[in-house]
Fold:
Amino acid sequence: MDAIIDEWQRDTDLVSPEIYREYLRDGDTRSLVSLQKLESGFERVVREIAETETMDSPAVWSVYNMGYIVKTRESLFSIDLVHRRAVELADKLDFALITHNHGDHCSSELYSALNKAGKTVISNFLDNYGATGKGAKNPVGGGFVVGEKTFKINDVEISTSLVDHNKYLLDFTTAFEIRVGNWKLYHSGDCGIADKLKTKWGRPDIWTFFPGCGINVADAVKKINPRKLVFGHMWELNHLSGRLNALLIKRAIEKAKSVNANVHLAFWGDRVDI
Structure:
């Protein structure tokens, strides 16, 4: 695992925030490996969504940062989906979940497209008129959600709670607990303090976890005790000093493994459920 981490570090070091923003504007990868991986990873996810038939357990893909796509027997939805081409999935998604109001977790273009199409977007900061308006696809009583609530959309149950991004942004992030049959996924966004992390449906099969923002990794893992711990939000290209880099990732892996966690890394385009 160390060799792969080091390789990704070398590649992402070549992409400054300025180069990344230029890529967002024009789509030119400039022959940089990391930007090529962003493009090919997205294309892989789109292709595999079409090819994958889900049975009892949903399929989960990492797209970029803390962005994931989940496919069940009846539903396709996103969590914190941000990518230059994210809006291309708007017609395929049934609904979307967004943990908090930061640009690396919320695509305004995707949100607008889903809202216009009458699809549900659950967040703690956006009015989702599409969720309740005429022709709404998945009405859940409104997409604007703060605190502890539970919804069901198609075959997906969703439970929300608020967690702290850091010591300044308290109750800023919505953690999503997702259940499909007996299968459970927990996504805690950019939670930086373990105190408010909790699950109402028991041990998750997958926890999509950001081991940054100062969170005590060992304490958090002991509290949630997932069957699989998936590290996301690695090498955020729009950041520089704040990137979760190779050194920090390796330290977080050591801390998680010290409490017997089954650690996996969410590389762009990968399925994380297998």
Q: What stands out?
A: Residues 192 and 213 are 5 Å apart (CA to CA). The helical segments are 2-12, 17-26, 33-51, 108-116, 129-132, 217-224, 246-257. The chain has one domain: 2-265. The chain has a mean pLDDT of 93.
